[in-house]
């Protein structure tokens, strides 16, 4: 975690370490399995390395492109920069770049491989709907993602799942040489890739849900106003249903990084969701509010 006034979250740190260890073990086993099965593992590694390089170094640009967002200066968005300046001073952390998306969908997200390369993006919808204390709570939430470095972990973890899906879809083309058992090899690789994808999907979803709880908690303690953050959650979740489906679908690539989920259709259950339920998040913020209200 970066050196800031955000309290270290041992629960989040341990979960990030465990998820990355399990994913690493999973993918080392998958590569060994590909080699044993006779698949052209060198080709797979080259392609995987290329994708990982691109996602690691350009994840911030890709996320901003997905939201059609652009960086804004203090002259262009003085109120937004003033809030971030104040929160960064309070948290004693470097100021990330600020971006703005001209979208009515009320949301915000943080991305970037390190605190020095981080960017926080807000939409027109969230700026129009939230009062200043509510917006401060949301931005404190996003800054905690940067400080805890869970954005970088989610970037890598999400990539590994995409890679498994790639092998599952195009595994036939990774086969090397002429092999009489090519069909059997393909089926084995294809099924193994699906299994790897499912496991990595569930691991990243579990981490994603916990990191939202951690960011809510850290943001609430930093501002000292958990009720403002709960109010922002209530407004955003309520207004999300009014956003056109096409706009929600366009935002799906950045879903795991959003402050609140841009849901499309009905949820298949908490196990598959990127975020905890709004009710659960508000309940935890109420507990923090009660703690802060107790005499010391």
From TrEMBL:
<dbReference type="Pfam" id="PF01435">
    <property type="entry name" value="Peptidase_M48"/>
</dbReference>
<feature type="binding site">
    <location>
        <position position="145"/>
    </location>
    <ligand>
        <name>Zn(2+)</name>
    </ligand>
</feature>
<keyword id="KW-0645">Protease</keyword>
<feature type="transmembrane region" description="Helical">
    <location>
        <begin position="41"/>
        <end position="58"/>
    </location>
</feature>
<keyword id="KW-0482">Metalloprotease</keyword>
<protein>
    <recommendedName>
        <fullName>Protease HtpX homolog</fullName>
        <ecNumber>3.4.24.-</ecNumber>
    </recommendedName>
</protein>
<keyword id="KW-0862">Zinc</keyword>
<keyword id="KW-0378">Hydrolase</keyword>
<dbReference type="GO" id="GO:0008237">
    <property type="term" value="F:metallopeptidase activity"/>
</dbReference>
<feature type="binding site">
    <location>
        <position position="141"/>
    </location>
    <ligand>
        <name>Zn(2+)</name>
    </ligand>
</feature>
<feature type="binding site">
    <location>
        <position position="212"/>
    </location>
    <ligand>
        <name>Zn(2+)</name>
    </ligand>
</feature>
<feature type="transmembrane region" description="Helical">
    <location>
        <begin position="12"/>
        <end position="35"/>
    </location>
</feature>
<feature type="active site">
    <location>
        <position position="142"/>
    </location>
</feature>
<comment type="similarity">
    <text>Belongs to the peptidase M48B family.</text>
</comment>
<dbReference type="InterPro" id="IPR050083">
    <property type="entry name" value="HtpX_protease"/>
</dbReference>
<feature type="transmembrane region" description="Helical">
    <location>
        <begin position="182"/>
        <end position="203"/>
    </location>
</feature>
<dbReference type="InterPro" id="IPR022919">
    <property type="entry name" value="Pept_M48_protease_HtpX"/>
</dbReference>
<keyword id="KW-0812">Transmembrane</keyword>
<dbReference type="InterPro" id="IPR001915">
    <property type="entry name" value="Peptidase_M48"/>
</dbReference>
<keyword id="KW-0479">Metal-binding</keyword>
<keyword id="KW-1003">Cell membrane</keyword>
<keyword id="KW-1133">Transmembrane helix</keyword>
<keyword id="KW-0472">Membrane</keyword>
<feature type="transmembrane region" description="Helical">
    <location>
        <begin position="151"/>
        <end position="170"/>
    </location>
</feature>
<feature type="domain" description="Peptidase M48">
    <location>
        <begin position="76"/>
        <end position="288"/>
    </location>
</feature>
């Amino acid at each position: 975690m970066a050196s800031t006034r955000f309290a270290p979250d041992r629960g989040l740190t341990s979960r990030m370490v465990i998820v990355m260890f399990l994913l690493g073990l999973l993918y080392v086993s998958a590569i060994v399995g590909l080699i044993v099965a006779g698949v052209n593992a060198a080709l797979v590694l080259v392609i995987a390395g290329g994708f990982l390089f691109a996602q690691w170094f350009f994840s911030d640009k890709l996320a901003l492109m997905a939201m059609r967002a652009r960086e804004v200066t203090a002259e262009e968005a003085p109120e937004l920069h003033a809030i971030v300046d104040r929160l960064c001073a309070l948290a004693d952390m470097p100021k990330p770049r600020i971006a703005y998306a001209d979208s009515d969908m009320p949301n915000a997200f943080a991305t970037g491989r390190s605190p020095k390369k981080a960017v926080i993006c807000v939409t027109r919808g969230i700026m129009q709907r939230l009062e200043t204390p509510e917006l401060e709570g949301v931005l404190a939430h996003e800054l905690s993602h940067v400080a805890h470095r869970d954005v970088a972990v989610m970037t890598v973890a999400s990539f590994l799942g995409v890679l498994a899906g790639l092998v599952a879809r195009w595994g036939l083309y990774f086969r090397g040489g002429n092999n009489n058992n090519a069909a059997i090899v393909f089926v084995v690789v294809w099924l193994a890739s699906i299994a790897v994808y499912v496991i990595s999907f569930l691991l990243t979803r579990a981490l994603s849900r916990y990191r939202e709880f951690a960011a809510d908690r850290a943001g609430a303690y930093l501002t000292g106003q958990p009720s403002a953050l709960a109010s922002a959650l209530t407004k955003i979740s309520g207004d999300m249903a009014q956003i056109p489906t096409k706009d929600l679908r366009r935002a799906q690539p950045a879903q795991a990084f959003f402050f609140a989920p841009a849901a499309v259709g009905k949820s298949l259950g908490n196990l598959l969701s990127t975020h905890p339920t709004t009710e659960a998040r508000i309940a935890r913020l109420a507990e923090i509010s009660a703690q802060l209200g107790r005499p010391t």
